């Protein structure tokens, strides 16, 4: 308590000394009817710099009365108001000094006019919008007057633009230019003691500013972060540039059915011309897409757009500890993108009406969960507000239209399918492998069915593309990837024809694709199997009602079939013989062998398609 009072008292003394340091200049300009020894550009540079400072102090002290930032405490205390008075006072005194010199300085009218126009123009794009936001609801959505500050997206983007882009330049470049101009001026009078006193006053002001400004010290000093980040955070959002990100939104279907809604595909793109450093970025479709700062929904009416009210999902966290690769945090290089299916408009779903047309709009938002570098570099570390980095801004503007309907009109997919592999495509002299499927004749809405896949090593392929005797054939080790899901087909019987059903809305998930290839021992890897001549490998696949066509009804007939494939890697011999044999797979493992690329010169094993298992939908 005593320490706080002491800081307040010292701050008032410093405040008065700073104000007093302007008195000789103003007195000189008043008595001498201006001063030819002070450059107008120098004065204008200082006024612009002080105006930029005023923008932030005014915004955090007045516009955000219930929020705490890097400038103010919560609740406001005496130190916050001392800072506010100092910045406003210095800004006022610089304006007074500029006004006196503009009025009395015998420079040309054109130079005076250009100075006034430049300053007024800067006021209109700096402090004027902040004051307008404080005294009115001009930045609120038209349908939501008197909204809280958090919903005033234009002013948030405006403040972010100044914080991330303009503040570092407007507080350095104009001053440097002004000092250069001032250094070229001829001095009429000079007072070395006065200069020393003024220097001391501003030095004390700078030193006393540090304990007066609110900075989350504990997040840095207690969190194991380098102390240099404290300086970065204190100099409000100044530091390395943030990644340049943009967002795109498109519906998966122009119609959204209330009975079976489709979703929206969001693409977040990093600019091609951005710096070449990698960055990591976390984006959660529920918290970021449908949270308080996420997408807005508007209904088209004869009177224009009407905002649809909803119940947004919780806000995303401001800090997050990375423990490894995960689906919501991705690395982005310039030009790269991340894509998310954010589903249907969860917050607005209960307020949507069939037959109406809607606009989904991205208002723009700031994100704390990002960092420069790769995921591996940040494993075990915390990203977000505690890192001291400025938030990433994804500008608003993108939107898309869709119509809400009761039931979506579905069209049969005309996507072509490759023909099944025939046994005539087998290569003579290679192992002969066949596949047989077994399964039930019905499928229920309530239970999944189990299909048995039997993969048999039948011997050696002869000239007739059939299997010869197994007696003289050796065992083989094969890569089992060709017997994965992509080589199976589900077909629906429609008007007497079999049509392959492609699930366009199936989410393939995600995978890491930029890690090094993985060395695998073929003798003990689950991605390889050993088959003796005549031996059968048995696998199982399951199908449920949700795997069928969306319009499946009782009585529909389907069939399931292995479509055929090629074993890209195989070798003669058993596990004992090849205990030391190593190949390389991609880092996500379930794919073709990448080394050796040509199976050491051996031809591939062509596996023809299997029989079909037909089943009917029952209740």
UniProtKB/TrEMBL annotation:
Membrane-spanning segments: 6-30, 42-62, 82-104, 116-135, 155-180
Annotated source species: Aspergillus mulundensis
The keyword Transmembrane helix is annotated on this UniProt entry: yes
Keyword flag Transmembrane: yes
UniProt entry keywords in alphabetical sequence: Membrane, Transmembrane, Transmembrane helix
Domain of life: Eukaryota
Native organism taxonomy: Eukaryota, Fungi, Dikarya, Ascomycota, Pezizomycotina
Protein name: Uncharacterized protein
């Amino acid at each position: 308590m005593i320490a706080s009072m002491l800081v307040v008292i010292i701050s008032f003394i410093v405040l008065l000394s700073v104000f007093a340091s302007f008195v000789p200049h103003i007195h000189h300009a008043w008595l001498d009817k201006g001063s030819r020894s002070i450059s107008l550009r120098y004065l204008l540079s200082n006024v612009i710099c002080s105006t930029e400072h005023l923008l932030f102090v005014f915004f955090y002290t007045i516009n955000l009365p219930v929020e705490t930032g890097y400038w103010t405490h919560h609740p406001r205390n005496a130190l916050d108001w001392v800072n506010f008075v100092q910045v406003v006072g210095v800004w006022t005194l610089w304006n007074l000094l500029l006004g006196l010199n503009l009025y009395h300085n015998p420079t040309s009218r054109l130079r005076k006019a250009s100075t006034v126009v430049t300053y007024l123009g800067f006021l209109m794009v700096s402090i004027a919008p902040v004051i307008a936001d404080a005294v009115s609801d001009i930045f609120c959505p038209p349908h939501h007057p008197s909204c809280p500050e958090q919903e005033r997206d234009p002013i948030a983007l405006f403040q972010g633009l100044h914080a991330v882009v303009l503040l570092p330049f407007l507080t350095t470049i104009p001053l440097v230019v002004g000092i250069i101009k001032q250094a070229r001026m001829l001095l009429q009078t000079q007072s070395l003691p006065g200069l020393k006193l003024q220097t001391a006053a501003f030095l004390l002001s700078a030193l006393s500013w540090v304990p007066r400004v609110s900075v989350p010290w504990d997040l840095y000093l207690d969190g194991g972060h380098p102390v240099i980040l404290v300086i970065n955070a204190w100099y409000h959002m100044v530091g390395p540039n943030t990644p340049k990100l943009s967002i795109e939104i498109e519906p998966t279907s122009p119609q959204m059915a209330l009975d079976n809604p489709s979703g929206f595909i969001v693409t977040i793109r990093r600019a091609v011309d951005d710096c070449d450093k990698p960055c990591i970025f976390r984006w959660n479709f529920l918290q970021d897409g449908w949270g308080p700062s996420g997408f807005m929904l508007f209904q088209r009416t004869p009177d224009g757009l009407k905002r649809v009210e909803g119940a947004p999902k919780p806000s995303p966290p401001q800090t997050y500890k990375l423990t490894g690769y995960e689906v919501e945090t991705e690395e982005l290089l310039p030009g790269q993108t991340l894509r998310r299916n954010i589903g249907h408009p969860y917050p607005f779903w209960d307020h949507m009406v069939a037959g109406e047309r809607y606009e989904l709009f991205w208002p723009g938002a700031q994100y704390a969960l990002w960092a420069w570098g790769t995921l591996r570099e940040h494993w075990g570390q915390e990203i977000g507000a505690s890192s001291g980095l400025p938030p990433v801004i994804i500008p608003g503007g993108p939107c898309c239209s869709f119509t809400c309907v009761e039931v979506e009109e579905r069209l049969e997919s005309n996507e072509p399918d490759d023909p099944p592999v025939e046994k005539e495509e087998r290569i003579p002299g290679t192992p002969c492998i066949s596949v047989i499927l077994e399964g039930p004749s019905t499928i229920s809405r309530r239970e999944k069915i189990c299909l048995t896949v039997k993969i048999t090593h039948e011997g050696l392929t002869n000239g007739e593309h059939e299997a010869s005797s197994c007696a003289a054939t050796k065992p083989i080790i094969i890569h089992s990837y060709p017997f994965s899901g992509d080589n199976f087909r589900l077909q629906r019987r429609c008007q007497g024809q079999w049509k392959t059903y492609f699930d366009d809305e199936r989410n393939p998930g995600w995978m890491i694709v930029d890690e090094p290839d993985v060395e695998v021992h073929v003798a003990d890897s689950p991605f390889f199997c050993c088959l003796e001549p005549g031996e059968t490998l048995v696998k199982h696949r399951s199908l449920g009602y949700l795997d069928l066509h969306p319009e499946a009804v009782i009585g529909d007939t389907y069939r399931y079939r292995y479509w055929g494939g090629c074993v890209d890697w195989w070798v003669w011999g058993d596990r004992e013989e090849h205990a030391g044999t190593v190949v390389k797979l991609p880092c996500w493992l379930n794919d073709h062998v990448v080394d050796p690329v040509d199976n050491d010169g051996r031809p591939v094993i062509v596996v023809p398609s299997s029989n079909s298992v037909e089943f009917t939908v029952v209740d």
